[in-house]
Design brief:
Length: 79
């Protein structure tokens, strides 16, 4: 069984309290096949973390990337 955790802000590396809570939740999730999806301005290279790059950390850029997030999650669960 696979699972995905999605955040619409920078969660890794944690810079805020909400980022720390979300990433710790991901780490403590008991399922081994898991992936962490986040929106960020910076690319993170990690096998379990997939970063969707946005130009600026503003709501309009996040809304424009929703279809991209959905397609990546769909692809992850399909494989």
């Amino acid at each position: 069984m696979k699972s995905a955790i999605v955040t619409f802000f920078d969660s890794y590396p944690p810079k805020t309290g909400s980022g720390r809570v979300c990433f710790d939740f991901f780490l403590s999730w008991p399922i081994k096949k898991k992936k962490f999806f986040q929106l960020s301005e910076k690319k993170i290279i990690n096998n379990n973390i997939e970063t969707i790059i946005i130009k600026k950390n503003k709501p309009i850029f996040k809304i424009l990337k929703i279809l991209n997030i959905i397609s990546r999650i769909k692809k992850y669960f399909h494989n």
